Amino acid sequence: MTYKIRFVLLMFFAVIFVVATPLVVLNARGYQFNFEEKKLINTGGIFLRSTPKKASIYLNNKPIKVQTPAIINGLIPGEYLVNIELSDFHSWRKQLEIESGMVIKQDNVLLLPKKPKITLISELPEIIIEKKENKLKYNDHEIWLESESENESNLITRYGEKIKQAFLHKDQEHVIFLVGNQVKFVEIDGTNTVDFIKADKILYQDSKLYILQKQNWFLTEFD
User: Fold this and answer.
1) Does residue 170 form part of some domain?
2) How many domains does the chain have?
3) pTM of this structure
4) Running along the chain, 223 residues long, what does each successive block of 10 average in pLDDT?
5) Cβ neighbours of 128 (radius 10 Å)
6) What CATH number did the domain enclosing 78 receive?
7) Structural domain for 207, as ranges
8) Which residue among 39, 62, 164, 190 is the one 20 to 30 A from 203 at the CA level?
């Protein structure tokens, strides 16, 4: 190999190094080239954690290779439809806004079984009612959650049928309530309402949901 060829090769690889290195660094810092807008943009991400775990993830109805819990980086800012699915469980669905340089957290995704397992109990344990102020408020047709930072309440959901009972889930992100004879779950932002099971009355304590059906008490532990 002549000196001239070696010099040309050396310069070729030097140019590649000079061009590629900044791109690699920018990509590592979350930047990508947007071919539609023809410019570099700072991407964002989503952190997803579900109970149960190992659920499938879909972004804009397209499957993602990873399962929950997972962090998905390199997303161009904008709205994304996120679905989390697991066999024999109700799916979770939410529209999320991805922002530049930010990771959106959805770390309390609760997947509820389509056919809950219940156990008949001989007697109902003594339910301890905490004396501290409860942030959850409800009347016959509405459920609210008191805001911690402001002196106001945020509406969670509204029903024409009477709301008989309502409990705040231990994760502080879900509400369990009884409408008619239907036990429902809803997130505190009013999304992902799930019809869980039929009951005449419910009690919730220490992650245990007690349901009354035809004068018999049953226990279901769902998370």
Assistant:
1) yes
2) 2
3) 0.79
4) 54 45 41 51 91 97 96 94 97 95 93 94 71 76 84 90 95 95 97 97 90 93 71
5) 8
6) 2.60.40.1120
7) 119-220
8) 190
